[in-house]
Structures are given as C-alpha cells and as structure tokens.
Amino acid sequence: MTHTLPEGFDHCDPLQQALYTTLFTRRDVRSQFLPDAIPDEVLARLLTAAHYAPSVGFMQPWNFILVRDPATRQSLHSAFMDAHLEAATMFPDEQRDKYQRLKLAGILDAPLSLCITCDRERAGKVVLGRTHMPEMDLYSTVCAVQNLWLAARAEGIGMGWESLFDPEQLRKLLHMPANAKPIAILCLGHVNAFYPKPMLELEGWASRQPLADMLYEDSWQNSIASITKD
Amino acid sequence: MTHTLPEGFDHCDPLQQALYTTLFTRRDVRSQFLPDAIPDEVLARLLTAAHYAPSVGFMQPWNFILVRDPATRQSLHSAFMDAHLEAATMFPDEQRDKYQRLKLAGILDAPLSLCITCDRERAGKVVLGRTHMPEMDLYSTVCAVQNLWLAARAEGIGMGWESLFDPEQLRKLLHMPANAKPIAILCLGHVNAFYPKPMLELEGWASRQPLADMLYEDSWQNSIASITKD
User: Fold this and answer.
1) Chain A contacts in chain B segment 197-226 (CB below 8 A)
2) Structure pTM?
3) B3-56 tens-digit pLDDT
4) With contact defined as beta carbons under 8 Å apart, do B169 and B196 qualify?
5) Which of A15, A41, A86 has the most B C-beta neighbours within 10 Å, making it the best mutation to test the interface with B?
6) So what's the ipTM on this one?
7) Would you write out chain A's pLDDT as a tens digit for each of its 230 residues?
8) Which of A50, A18, A208 lies closest to A143, judged by CA?
9) Residue A169 gets which letter from DSSP?
C-alpha cells in the first residue's frame, strides 16, 4: 500500500501513518475484482474488525450474512438491477445518461457478498445511550461496516457498499426476521488495483468539497476556516 | 500504543497490525481526560480523516461544529443531564441504580466538544445510491465519526460519543438549520489512560457476545460458526 500522505501527515509516527494511509486510500470498489476466494483466516479478521466496532450500550446489534450461493447472488444482482433501473428514471435528463454509464453493480464481479444487519431488539426495550436517539443502533452497525471496510483495505481487499437496494426486497431474499434491518450489502474481493481517487470524482460526477467550508465554532452562525488549509 | 493482538492477527504485516491495534484499542471515553488543548495541527488531521470517509453519491453531507466556548459547553452539559435524568426513569428498578452509578457525562471533562451533523439536502433531491435508502446520508456521516474516532485513537486522543441528547435540544443550542441533523456529540481530549476493555464491559453492564453466534450463510435460516473461533 504505497501512498504519499499530504502535508501535515508526513511527520506522524509510522503507526499513525499506517492508519491515515488506510483511511485515505480506501475506495468504494465496483470493478477491478479478481475471482480468487478470500481465505477464511482473512475473512475472520475482517468480521472480527467489524465486531469490535463501538456500539450504543455495548449492544452489538449486528449480524453478518455471507452470500456465496450462486443462485442467491444472482437474485441479489437482479434486485440491484431493478432498483438501479428505477433510480435512473428519477434523475433529470441531463444527469440520466451519465448515471447509466457509471459502473455501479458489483455483486456478480466480486467473489463474496456480505449483508450486515441491525437487530433492533437485541438488547431489550431500553438501551443505555439510545433513549433519545433510537437510531443509535443503526449508527453502531454502520461503524461496524466502516471498521470492516478499513480492515479490508489494509488486507488489500476491495469493498463496495451497494446501497441501491430496496431494503424490503433484501429482507425477503435473505429471509430476515422483522426485527433485523438490512444496513449494507457489500461486495468483497481481491482487486487488481485501487483507484487513486473515488470513482465518482474520476468520472466527474462530483468533486471533493473544501473541508474549510464545513467548519463552525460554537454555533452554526459562526463559520471558521482557520484550522485547515485545503 | 502497546497491545497484544489476538491469535490470527499476529502474522499480519506491520501496517495491518497498526490498523488492527487501533481498531481493538479504541474506547468510548468519558473520563481520564487531561485539560490540555488538542493542538491545531492534530485537530486538522482528525477532521481531515473524517472528511475522507465514504459518502453516498460522494455527497460529503457532514459539517463540524467545534464547541469551545465555556457557556455553550455548560449548556450542552445541562442538556445532556436533562436527557440522562429522563433516561434513568426508563430503566427497570434493578437496572436503574447501576445506570445512575455509571460515568456517562464527559462534556465538561474533555477540553473540546465536537458536533458532527448531516445536511440532508446537500446534493439536491436525487442522490446517486440513496434513491431506495434515503438514510444513506446519515450512514455516511456515521462513517465520518468512526474515521475520526480511529484517527483520534492513533493520535493518543480519547473520544466519547455522547448519544443521550435530545436532538431537537441540540439543534436549538447550536443554532442549526432544519436541513441539518445532529448525528453525534463527541468529547475529545488527551487522556491519562485508555481502558483495556469497554467501560460497560468492565462495569459488568454488558459483555462481548461471541461473533460466531452472529454469522449466517446465504440466508438467515442458515447459521454458521465455522470461520471464526472466538
């Protein structure tokens, strides 16, 4: 994993540089997948990384459904394509052509699909830290997704988060109970390359915004830009 | 950051070990804070780490409100305590005493509070990848929180995610517009120690569940435990 860290990161110690390099080179991968299976010991590390995510009230609300069966993966792909075609109709004319040319489907390209779910009832009715923000269990599960994503990158494994699905269709396909909410469908596999920048940036769909424009101090009324220089 | 990685991680290369060590030693910190201010260059790295999180449709929906003003931090603390007292009444009797003895408030202990928000309208009405799961922008913002958390750990800075707030009270306190949803209030600062395990585990509030019980293959009907051994 070679990557030149930007100014401000070049004097960090090697452990910090390792983390930052992983953060900055992580990509949402939809192509470049190789067919080789992910070894069980690597997969175990990725799942363990996810399982050590923070969770509200130490609720650990996640489950992991590994999808390897070809017929099930074909059904997932079909569900993805249904949603993708529907989505295309929602864009204004000038964006639709570009949208349709983007490579978004990754399920059939990658050797493994993984669904990460949130069990909304795992810890009973009252959960510490979730009393005023009931969605905190969903957020905990997203932290597990991000942990897994970073571990995958460090292992040289590409991951894509396929968020185009209709969640109800996913629930039926994978026979999930009503208390389990699908949070993410991921495609995972070794890759022949990681893009140097996000694919949507390279394709001109959107560009990275200046961090300085996103900073406030003490109030949304008080914009600041002093502590960052990008 | 010394930490013995578990079996299965001990043969990873040094970059991978650095990431896994950061993941496994990250804690939700509410005490142990030192009063020293976080240097600007460190804070800039943490915010940059957050800003390089994945986001649906490359939407980058986050904003960051640094809260340093003592009066505003006192108001945040009061809002936290209001919600904390309300929360205590929700627990059954046998849990309430224990709940009230836990150290959950961290705002006044840490030198910096940070609110991370999600602008639900940042990229217009139709956002690539968010057409069937409108909450994907919230999930993107959570990825930014987790990136910042890991960067903080690597920098030796403790972070707590204070999720007890009433979000509407937060919005008013920090003068947030209607399109911005508060996702996380964080307390941040150098610490004199990181706990060896999550505080709620050490206090006997909850224990870590076996990952093997959380795994399925191809369907929720098909539980598996073969690829992990914990």
Assistant:
1) 198, 200-201, 205-209, 211, 214-221, 224, 226
2) 0.97
3) 789 889 988 998 999 999 999 999 999 999 999 999 999 999 999 999 999 999
4) no
5) A15
6) 0.97
7) 667 898 899 889 989 999 999 999 999 999 999 999 999 999 999 999 999 999 999 999 999 999 999 999 999 999 999 999 999 999 999 899 999 999 999 999 999 999 999 999 999 889 999 999 999 999 999 999 999 999 999 999 999 999 999 999 999 999 999 999 999 999 999 999 999 999 999 999 999 999 999 999 999 999 998 666 55
8) A50
9) H
* Residue type for position A6: P
Selecting from B15, B161, B217 the residue whose C-beta is nearest the C-beta of A1 gives B15
How far lies A20's CA from each of A42, A62, A90, A175, B109, in Å?
21, 26, 37, 38, 27
Question: Are the Cβ atoms of B131 and A175 closer than 8 angstroms?
Answer: no
Chain centroid to Cα B33, Å, comes to 16
Interface of B with A in 147-206 (CB under 8 A): 147, 149-151, 154-155, 161, 163-167, 174-177, 180, 183-184, 198, 200-201, 205-206
- Pull the structure tokens for residue A151: 């571990």
Domains and CATH numbers, chain B: 27-196 (3.40.109.10)
CA distance A218 to A42: 44
Whether B87 contacts chain A with CB within 8 A? yes
Q: Which CA distances in Å does B26 have to B1, B109, B145, B228?
A: 10, 19, 13, 22
The position carrying tokens 């185009």 is A164
User: pLDDT tens digit string along A2-58?
Assistant: 678 988 998 899 899 999 999 999 999 999 999 999 999 999 999 999 999 999 999
Q: Is the CB of A220 less than 8 angstroms away from the CB of B47?
A: no
Both tokens of A76, joined, read 């997932």
